[in-house]
User: Fold these one by one.
Assistant:
Number 1:
Amino acid sequence: MFQPKQMSKLLIVASKQQLEPVITELYRMNIFHIDDYVEKGDDQWEGFRIGMPLKGADTTSSSLVKIRSIASAFGIGSDQLDESAKARVQELKRSIEQDLPALADEVEHLLSQRSKLEASVKEHEQKIEALKSFTDAPFPMELLNGYDSVGCIAGTVKSHPEISVPHEIWEKQLKSGLFITIAARNEDLPAVEKALLEVQLQKVTIPGENGHAPAIIADYEQKIAGIHQDIEQISVKMAEIREKHQYFLMSSEELLTADVEQAEAPLRFATTDLAFAVVGWVPTEQVTKVYENLDRVCAGKVYTTELEIEDLNDGPPVEYNNPRFSHPAELFIDLYSRPKYTEVDPTLLMAIVYPIMFGLILGDVAYGLVLLAMSFGLRSLVKGSDAGSQLLDILRNCSVASIIFGVIFSEFLGFSLPWAPLWFSRHISIGVAAGAEHHASAIPQLLVVSIWIGILHITLARIWGAQNASRMDHGHHRSLKIYANIGWILVMWGIIVLIWSKFPIILMPDLTQMPELAGGLNVATIAGAVMLVLGLVLIARENALDLMEIPTIISNVLSYTRLIAVGLSSVAIAMVTNFISIGMFINPALENLTPVGIILIIVGILIFFIGHVGNTVLGIMGGGIHPLRLHYVEFFTKFYRGGGKKYNPFGMIRRLTEQN
Amino acid sequence: MAAEAVAVEVAAAAASAAGLKAVGAGLAVGLAGVGSGLGEMGIGAAAMGAVAENKDMFGLALLFTVLPETIVIFGLVVALLLMFQ
């Protein structure tokens, strides 16, 4: 809790004969995070080189490429398949050898046939497009081509051309300008073209066809329909193949991916001619498992030992070690940065505080129910995506918190529930809710509550900042940093005590009545001032430039008032929507029911829906982003460093194939 | 007569005070919003670019983009205090 999983650094050394069994076993266990071997002329690793891939890696890779190309042509993804039936590895390997080449040829053949047919459809369509201009022509198309002494020009022009040489012309009115076809003797053609250029001729090529244009077009259209039928047949065949082979394709993709990863593993190992060595990380609780399993598969011919960890901060990969409940919040931490191995992991706290903040902002039973329904309804959309289901889990937790706060605030779509708010009320006097005296809002109190949340949150952040400094820094710098964090806490609380000693504030201790000491200053004022000065000194000892950041203490704490402010704006939008739709449209129309009144009621209902849907969307955005920002900006910047390596064990979780 | 006139004047003064409060609240939210928007304009554009280059930047980009929006929250808080206290 608040700490990543403990890791141990293992060194595995064996002779080259044990290379394959060791790789297979490590891959099967799926817990060994390999530290890639890099040749950097280190004395310790003198004589070691990066290894060569195992035999057969290239043929496996080429089969894998084939399978992936077929799968992408079919658009199959492994997450669409049922995972209950697992393919047997031996059978799968046999069918990859026997069936895959034929299947690949067939699919390739069908694909090329289809693209040929599609190309010919395009060609025919282009021809039809060219012929369309001639559909009204009184002459068959063959009359425009094949003369020795006469030439034809066709195209669109802006207006009727003035041509001085003998010619024959057919023209057709278009929306903008004319479509013309002109025939003239070859020696007159230059003069004709010149005249046409003056009316901005845009030439079209005259299609070399026989017969009248409409008949030719009909003929082509028939051909296109025929080709479409052929394409349809191919698609049906492809769908049949897909249906029949998709399971085989995806399971063999999984098998071959595993094979290729194993075959290429030696590229991450250090090898000599006869032996190999690999360094990696395993969760400490599973070290003995690695020892035992490797001993078993190599019949004792392997040397495994635990190495000392030199650099705790940057060495070990980081795997979260949190209760299941906080798993979704890991998404937010990863979005920011994975914690370093030695630092405090705030996931659990965020998993608890984030939904509470969301609930404080959105606190409305109806919106909460809508979001809860969404978090279950959208599950099928994110099937197979870990981040997606984490996000929906967060949404679920947040919507439950919203419902709880909705009950506390007595809010339902901006209306009040049959009871008075159990805590401070957020009801504002807008429209229909106006005059409900027992619901009088307690906004100053709520703002103070949010400031309290801020003070505690930031104090905790500084405490963790000191803890991180004590774990991660060394020497003189370490103690300075710890004291600086204490200094920040002292300055913040000093300012708070000073304010308390001067102004009485609701829901906060009133220190104005403390016994007075010299010069009209009471005990609390002096205590606050001492804390402030002491804090400033501690901060300045670490880095005097940090004193510039002192005003952020106030702005950071006040920033937490957004929890109430954003929430109130969503309450206000809900109430205004209710007021406009019910108070201004529906109620007046109901009092005196007329045909116009019915339309007004429908408009009122529409406004009601649109307003509340919009407010729900705003609520998700506001309720989601603001707490996230409070964590990232106000909370994390005080202690969190991040930049840890992700624990990425060598192996895979098999979904479609059996473990061999 | 005089008493009535005074009463009308007092009521008018109260109404204008309430009106000015509302204007002040509007200005607080509106101007703070414009300010935040201006601030986020440049950051947002740059953040988009950074995320397009490297998806891992998303968390940091979001952080930078939302930094100036505290200002509008302060505006909103001031408006709420003006209107409802």
Number 2:
Amino acid sequence: MELMTSIPGVADANAPAPQPRELQAHPGRGDRYFNRGASLSGLTVLSVMAAVGLFLGIQAWQALSATGFSFLTTAEWQPDRNKFGIAEVMLGTVLIALVAGIVAFPIAMSTALFITEVAPKWLRSSLVALVDLMAAVPSVVYGLWGLFLLQGQVVGVSRWINTWFGWIPFFAVDGADPNSPLSAATVYTASTLVAGIVVAMMVMPIQCVVMREVFSQVPVGEREGAFALGSTRWGMIRVVSIPFGRGGIIGGTMLGLGRALGETIAVLLIISPVFQINFHVLQQGSNSVSSLIALRYSEASDFSLSALMAAGLVLFAATLVVNFTASWFVARSRSGASSEA
Amino acid sequence: MTAAISQRAANVQQQATTVIARRSSAAAVAPPRRAIGGTSRQDAMALAGAAASSLCTTMLLFGRLTPLSGRLGFVIVWFIIFLGIYAALLSLTEDRPAVVDRVMAALLTSASVLAGVALASVIIFVLWRGRTALVHSNFFTQDLSVTGPSEPLSVGGITHAIAGTLIMTAISLVITVPLGVACAVFLNETRSRATSLVRTVVTAMTALPSILAGLFIFATWVLILGFPRSGLAASIAMSIMMLPIIIRSADVVLRLVPGNLREASAALGAPQWRTVWQIVLPTARSGLTTAVILGVARGVGETAPVLLTAGFTNTMNVNPTKNPMVSLPLAAFKLVSAAEPNLIARGFATAAVLMLLVLILFTAARVLGGRPVGRLTKRQARAATAQSARDRVRIDAMSSSANRVPQEMS
């Protein structure tokens, strides 16, 4: 009764219910062009990117079908004699990336924690800029620095590690005599260790950025809760920040590893390429997939190029796996739940 | 019910009146405030003492007591001894958690210092080794076409590499900026089902090792299509590297544009393309500029793709479609690979020029990108005010020509 009296013009209850309005947009000509153009650019990017992957795959097929599974286990590179495989170069790549990861991880994590937890406020933005700048320095510059400055310094440390820890297989060096202080230092140059430290300079900022972002999202309430319970600052970091940021720590580390796998020029400048399985990180001679490609791309035959493509494809696949695992870790962590990594 | 509440209130009041004690006298001194931050004098003393005594111990160890030598080893040993002595000094006065806290803070600080020192040493070392070539003005005005490997540094320079880098970067920008921004718009502004696929593929492509971009262009453009190795081929390879970086940063920036701006524009009847063109993109302008600059900074420093696709030359070449063209990082790489000291000095100087270029780009990106989305500079604000004044004049003119009384606005 109220309804009937107060609202004029409303049809009585017997009238059919009004149809729901059709909420269909009818874009004008401009919008149709806009949508088509935007989709076209998206499609172009998609096809370019897909073309790179597909093309690598198709080109690599010739070499891969010729060798089959032995491509992964052969440690030689003689495509003209049909004896080639990536066991050696892939091992070198992984070793360099591992050394880089081991060197970079503690520095990246400490720097990230320092920026978010310890540093005074006025220092923070400059530190963030410093880390970003480290990421922007071209790799050829790091390569020059590593070859002409760092190598001379690392040789002494390499010799010391070899003298005292040479019994660990990784630190053994063929041809080095720990008892003679005058033995040539050249066996320690151009080693996996030097290349790994230089690559660590490029990996560190990538890891640090991801970790810093995660640590800066630690809920204030949990931080203050830890302090209120009497925790010291380190205690708070240990029980609140690090557990909260675990996904970001793992993800950031792996992102850095992905970068380390693909690094070319700095590695090419430092290592002296060898084609034998070399586990000894202190010893001269190493190799990596990308420097192999850079050294051999101009070889004449189609087939050897196809072999290089196959090596590149394996490298790309490895990088992709590492990167997607990294973003999966970041996304599923508590801290990464809100952001889309 | 009301009675119960007032009862409780009365209780509270009663409790309150009994708990608060009267100040005994006005002369009572307030207790000193506890310092909850900063460094105490004792901390500073412990730090300085540990540093000094560990330095002395290390100097004794190196050369006097043991046959240790080498600068890097010296620093490492010094640092380890420092941590030990620092912990020992602190444990004289503090309990265990406090000692652990201080030592960890020292560790975290020194890691950051290490990172800073490493970066500084890279920059200073490259500038220092390049100084002999950088001081000659001919380094910036000549190329290396007639300069022999052992000729003095007063002859020859790297104009060809500077020109090459500028040309390649310009071509890459022409390719990547429209395509990258359009793709970011596609990811954010359209409701296509393909967006998640495109986003995943773009993310995957940021993982593409740079040498593979070069190898791809070398195999297709040079070997299959038969074009010569040239600046254009190198630009395309650089574009493949830059595109995912630009798209990803631009995607993030466009996502930050407030949705109510889009809604306001749609509510005023603007079609979608006008909303994007006149609202979304101008709002995100500074962020988009940063995205492009970061992409350029990455692209300029890429050596591997250029190595495979551009060829190498010592002569000036401004035609990107034929003949080899060289870029700064490639020139630096090739020059230091030679054994001649003068060429190595030139290589370092080239790397220094490249580094300064990247530094300038980086600073520009930080200056432009420091502003949040939609915040205007003074100049932009003046321009916007002038534009709206012009709009008002135009609207007034339109309404008066339509034979209507112009509405008073103020």
